[in-house]
Amino acid sequence: MNDTNKVDAYEALVQFLYRAPIGLVQAGLDGTIDMLNPMSSSLLMPLARDGSLDNLFTVLQTWRRSCAR
After folding, report:
1. CB burial class (10 A; 0-12, 13-18, 19+) of residue 6?
2. Cα–Cα dist 66/27, whole Å
3. Which of 2, 25, 45, 57 lies in disulfide reach of 31, CB 3.0 to 4.6 Å?
4. Structural domain boundaries of the chain?
5. What is the pTM of this model?
6. What is the pLDDT along the chain (69 residues), one digit of tens a residue?
7. What is the C-alpha end-to-end distance of the chain, expressed in Å?
8. Beta strands, E only, the chain
9. Residue 37: φ, ψ to 5°
């Protein structure tokens, strides 16, 4: 596979990620968010009280607390 094909394949993958109708998140074991697509941003943003999507566990912990009430 030459460099042009690799770039084309990478661009196709990025387009797929951004057009996917579901939320996709890439996070580390500690919850640090490395990458997310627009759908996951729109789904998680209402749960992020401080507007930060840096850590998936922090965002979901907030949601868990609100569901326990």
Report:
1. exposed
2. 23
3. 57
4. 3-68
5. 0.72
6. 788 888 889 999 889 888 999 999 999 999 999 999 999 999 999 999 888 999 999 999 877 777 776
7. 55
8. 25-27, 33-36
9. -90, 170
Residue pair 47/58 in contact by the 8 Å Cβ criterion: no
Tally: H helices and E strands in the chain:
3, 2
Residue 33 phi, psi (nearest 5) = -80, 120
In whole angstroms, give the CA distance from residue 6 to residue 60.
36
Residue 43: both structure tokens together: 């789904």
- On whether the CB atoms of residues 57 and 31 are closer than 8 A, the answer is yes
Greatest Cα pair distance in the chain: 56
How many angstroms separate the CA atoms of 22 and 38, rounded?
9
